[in-house]
Amino acid sequence: MWFCSECGADSPKWEGRCPACGAWNTMVEERITTRKKDSGQSRTSRMTMSVPQRVSEIRAIDEARIHMPSEELNRVLGGGLVSGSMVLIGGEPGIGKSTLVLQNILSIKSRRILYVSGEESAMQIKLRADRIGRMSDNCYIVTETSLENIFRHIEQIEPQLLIVDSIQTIASDDIESSAGSVSQVRECAARLLRFAKEANVPVMLIGHINKEGSLAGPKVLEHIVDAVLQFEGDRQYMYRILRATKNRFGNTSELGIYEMCQRGLREVTNPSEMLLSRQDEESLSGCAIGVTLEGIRPFLIEAQALVSTAAYGTPQRSVTGFDSKRMNMLLAVLEKRVGFKLAQKDVFLNIAGGLKVADPALDLAVIAAILSSNVDMAVPHGICLSGEVGLSGEIRPVTRMEQRVREAEKLGMETIIIPKGSLKGVDTSKLSIEIVEVAKVEEAFRRLFG
Ligand code: TYD
Ligand code: MG
């Protein structure tokens, strides 16, 4: 059979383009040996067949959740790990997936946990546990890559939580293709899922991300599992972000932030503190502080820009941590609506801390940083901004403004520039922060640089 390495679709013959997802050159050949279905199976499956029930008659039992030691992880999971669920933790190699999981399970002393590693020897894991500085008598470690053997270990140990690190190293004897191939990953995940549901034991899979940034091989995995958590970050920085891209038991806008330290991962409970590089020093041109929101948590983040005359014909535009198309749009707005001549300038934009921000509320801060660098005047100390910029240069309201304002106040900001009318119906009399409402980019510019 031929499988698409992007989406897992199968086809009996080779095709240049995947018939399902339309990706080019992704079909790979894999040998399939069909397992002999024993004749008794259809009878047993009829016996265990479930009966349709009326929705009103189904008893809603609150899913039992296992409280994980890391609060950030709990929040991203939607309040703990649901028993019988299967969670996939994806991330680039070396980002800290194994560390995150090991650190957590070594702190759960009340449950028997089996950690199956296909990548590292028990010795290596022990060294890592020593480094993290935690130990547990209830955590069993085994180095194993055969799915059948894993099930033997499960029978023996009867774990209450199973970790498989990583799913791409596990192979079943029933399938001839090598570990990590689409059919292997799909089969192993499906069998582990069946175990999770039947034994009501939560299973955490660790998965690698391929060059393109998707979970290696199988999009299929994303359909199978109950939750997909992405562990990401810039390896140059020590900050790591855990976000849910799919969660059947919680919402996907939550975010957990960690810092990789010498002795494992540290939770960052107040992200604003880490994202503001130098709060007390004097302000420099090209920096502006924006208030952004991830999930339901607002935090302050610094946008840094450098605008300089292009040395060569074509001006350069370089962006880290922000959507480059969006920056080009903002530059066009500044050029056309506000009359800044930026067409012949190099523009570099950077979001501090190696974070990637998708919140449009950061627009105002990005614009402020660019303008500040362009006129070489610092944004006055204690000012932060939050608002979306529209194509005609208007400032548009963003969600949850009240929370953003409160966060800015909590962190000692003196002034916040926000879209006009976004605090309607909110009692601002108790706030000590000065609120400046603007409707146009020019107004914000005037307020910042006079
Ligand atoms: P690891 O968990 O092995 O990554 P993954 O499982 O995602 O491939 O993390 C490895 C990196 O983390 C490695 O570069 C070393 C670093 N690290 C620390 O900085 N401090 C620590 O306490 C530990 C255990 C690892
Ligand atoms: Mg690992």
How would you summarize what this structure contains?
This protein is 27% helix and 25% strand. The chain has twelve helices and 23 strands. Residues 97-98, 119, 165 line the site of magnesium ion (MG).
Textual characterization of the structure:
This protein has three domains: 1-30, no CATH class; 64-269, P-loop containing nucleotide triphosphate hydrolases (Rossmann fold, 3-Layer(aba) Sandwich), CATH 3.40.50.300; 274-449, Ribosomal Protein S5, domain 2. It is 27% helix and 25% strand. The chain has helices spanning 40-47, 71-77, 97-105, 122-132, 147-157, 182-199, 219-224, 271-275, 324-338, 363-375, 401-410, 441-449, and strands spanning 2-4, 10-11, 27-29, 65-66, 81-82, 86-91, 113-117, 139-143, 161-165, 203-208, 227-232, 239-247, 255-261, 264-267, 287-294, 297-309, 317-320, 345-351, 383-385, 388-389, 395-396, 415-419, 434-438. α6 (182-199) links the parallel β9 and β10 (203-208). 40% of the residues are buried. Mean pLDDT is 86; it is low at 39-43. Magnesium ion is lined by residues 97-98, 119, 165.
Which terms would index this structure?
450 residues, alpha/beta, Ribosomal Protein S5, domain 2, 3 domains, 7-stranded mixed sheet, 12 helices, 23 strands, binds thymidine-5'-diphosphate
Topology summary:
Layout: E1 2-4, E2 10-11, E3 27-29, H1 40-47, E4 65-66, H2 71-77, E5 81-82, E6 86-91, H3 97-105, E7 113-117, H4 122-132, E8 139-143, H5 147-157, E9 161-165, H6 182-199, E10 203-208, H7 219-224, E11 227-232, E12 239-247, E13 255-261, E14 264-267, H8 271-275, E15 287-294, E16 297-309, E17 317-320, H9 324-338, E18 345-351, H10 363-375, E19 383-385, E20 388-389, E21 395-396, H11 401-410, E22 415-419, E23 434-438, H12 441-449
Parallel strand pairs: 6-10, 6-11, 7-8, 7-9, 9-10, 15-19, 17-18, 19-22, 22-23
Antiparallel strand pairs: 1-2, 1-3, 4-5, 11-12, 12-13, 13-14, 15-16, 16-18, 20-21
Helix pairs in contact: 10-12
The protein binds thymidine-5'-diphosphate and magnesium ion.
Magnesium ion is lined by residues 97-98, 119, 165.
